[in-house]
Amino acid sequence: MSSDFTFRRGLVWLRNDLRIQDNTALYRAAKGCAQVAAIFIACPQTWRSHDEGDPVVAFRLVCLRELQQSLAERHIPLYFLELQKFAQVPRAMTQIVEKLDVDALFANAEYPLDEQRRDSDVREALKKIDVPVEYCTDRTLLPPGAVRTGSGDAYKVFTPFKRAFIEQCGGTDFAPLPQPRGMAEDQSWPNWIEVQGAHNLVQTIPEQLPGFQPVPEKNGELLGWRPGEKAAAKRLRQFREDIDGYEDERDFPAIDATSRLSPYLNSGAISIRQCVHMALSLNDGRWTGGSDGISCWLSELIWREFYTHLLVAFPRLCMHKPFKEETDKVPWSYDEAKFRRWCDGETGVPIVDAAMRQLNQTGWMHNRLRMVVASFLSKNLLIDWRWGERYFMQHLLDADFAANNGGWQWAASTGTDAAPYFRVFNPYSQSKKFDRHGEFIREFVPELRELDDDKIHCPPPMENYPPPICDVGESRKHAIAVFADLK
Questions:
Q1: EC number(s) for this protein (predicted)?
Q2: Fewest C-beta atoms under 10 Å: which of 187, 324, 454, 465?
């Protein structure tokens, strides 16, 4: 082994970080090891228990196949192993490390509670055979727990967290790490090895996994999205040209004014550093001030950071618990028929139905509309927010647990930094304000296309469109009364 390297053989454990560029664990492994291989472990049973859906898994597998090709160009083999659940990973990883004769394991840290426990168990298992494990900060800009109040507590409110976060980042520009170096062509990595259970460690990425349905591809796209690191980089370049108008246009769903980078951030086809570096470089290194569009988008990225930090500080968020514990006493409705109408976009409230149909057809929903439909479900229908949270996890391409949980608890007034319980989005006024001419509604609710701009937001009785599922005004009053009784 060359004296330039700390280890002879390193293994990179890939998860939701499916890219070559600016991948901390991959970069450190390539820098510190003479030889490097990568591994991806699928756990369909655990993924299902975490409500991961067909779209996000299908997107992940396509990203993984593209990454395997990029790694192969650098003579870094990518292995694939299918287990059923996280509990099997520590023993399997021990076998893999021993059979591949690996000296160190590198991975980018993950923060939901089950993932933290799995990673801790892997570290302990490999410690017994004297193989070090390095978990790198990569999914967030700062390690969760690094931003604290003056008394050492975790922040519970976004605005002071944001101020402290920006102050702590200082003049950091978060320049992306370079791609890993290429390895020697002949490294004697085996094509496959036998591992516990019915599945072996192989170098073939499957088209689908048991328990998950395939998502049809059309012209290399899934639900209209092109997976992979190259597509993510292209999207970032496109948004770079439009970012100055982000604050003014981001709330209008008929306009393509958002970054649409969330599926790529979730799969790790692009890094948070790449996004932040692009924005800061255009704004003279400033997080606030300068371009209103840029500073607004950066603030949205800090929200993403905030929600991830909360998971670590308050593990109950990973246990289907509300942040505000008293809100567990809300007498939620569990009306399955009404919930199904909400899921299917058949509530009789056009903007809600258009948003839900967008989700079902494209695996994505405009952020303004996520707030509208979440408020409608949890306040107007008073259906348990956890039902909506789960549905989003199962259908979104960008189903990030921290952001999804944080958004739902915000809308339902159960979370940290939540909307006050008396704030209930009026779907009709939201529709008139942000889809004034009904362009978005017409795209996804074709039954209403012939209505004029005034009637499309609140249609008259129609044969081919359902009446409203509830009285928005009366249901709002009821929800406010319910929450007020908790005081």
A1: 4.1.99.3
A2: 454
